[in-house]
């Protein structure tokens, strides 16, 4: 398996959805799950940010006259279906389905054409950047997708190809409590169950230590280690993304 990583950058005014992310730098969208076939595309995205940004995104996402995914200038029938699975003032979880992608000139449509079945995409939006990582088979036509992306982009969009190589993202970015040592996992699960992380807290550290029958100092140490690991995993990609803003992106090393 190989990984194809690239970023599409948007000028302000080139896309109404990306304009919101440009105007609100704290807004961020990440694909939780994405699947496709020649017969359709379906995905789940998590969007977080200021309440006013999410209200604008709500309006644009479901607007019938705009395709949120098209990168070309050719007309696309916007028969996308959207359903909000979760909504609160600072977050949305949105399910999207398109029964046919034949006339939608998007990254997903082009990837389906050139890379074939068996690919797994991951995508993020932040600021003026729409970043893609696609896990693909070794024999997938990455050079064909590379050329198609360059040819398809409309005015106001630019593509930066980062790399084609080993699947490092997929090996490094998975976060699972199963990777924690047993004692730390037990401590943090007990804290969550007891409501320790609720506001206001429903239990004290002393209460949890009593349930686990361990000294309070031991519980505090285990929670600190677990929290440090979880937070480190969560923010590592954001820190890497910020670093990308200040360093030149590497050239494609293999096609």
TrEMBL record:
Coiled coil: none annotated. Keywords: Transcription, Transcription regulation. InterPro entries: HTH_bacterioopsin, HVO_2928_N, RNA_pol_sigma_r3/r4-like, WH-like_DNA-bd_sf. Residues 183-231 form the HTH bat-type domain. Pfam families: HTH_10, HVO_2928_N. Transmembrane segments: none annotated. Residues 3-170 form the HVO-2928 N-terminal domain. PANTHER family: DIMETHYL SULFOXIDE REDUCTASE TRANSCRIPTIONAL ACTIVATOR. This is HTH DNA binding domain-containing protein. It comes from Natrinema salifodinae.
């Amino acid at each position: 398996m190989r990984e194809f990583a690239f970023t599409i950058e948007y000028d302000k005014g080139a896309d109404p959805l990306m304009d919101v992310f440009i105007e609100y730098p704290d807004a961020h969208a990440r694909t939780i799950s994405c699947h496709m076939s020649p017969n359709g595309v379906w995905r789940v995205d998590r969007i977080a940010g200021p309440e006013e940004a999410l209200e604008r995104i709500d309006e644009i996402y479901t607007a019938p006259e705009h395709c949120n995914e098209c990168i070309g200038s050719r007309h696309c029938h916007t028969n996308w279906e959207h359903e909000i699975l979760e909504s609160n003032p600072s977050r949305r979880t949105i399910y999207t389905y398109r029964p046919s992608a034949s006339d939608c000139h998007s990254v997903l449509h082009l990837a389906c054409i050139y890379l074939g079945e068996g690919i797994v995409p991951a995508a993020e939006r932040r600021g003026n950047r729409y970043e893609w990582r696609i896990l693909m088979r070794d024999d997938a036509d990455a050079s064909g997708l590379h050329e198609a992306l360059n040819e398809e982009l409309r005015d106001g969009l630019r593509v930066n190809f980062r790399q084609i190589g080993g699947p490092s993202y997929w090996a490094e970015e998975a976060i699972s409590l199963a990777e924690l040592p047993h004692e730390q996992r037990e401590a943090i699960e007990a804290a969550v169950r007891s409501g320790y992380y609720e506001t206001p807290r429903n239990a004290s550290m002393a209460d949890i230590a009593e349930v686990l029958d361990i000294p309070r100092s031991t519980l505090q140490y285990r929670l600190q280690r677990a929290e440090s690991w979880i937070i480190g995993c969560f923010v590592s990609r954001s820190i890497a993304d910020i670093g990308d803003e200040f360093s030149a992106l590497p050239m494609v090393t293999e096609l």
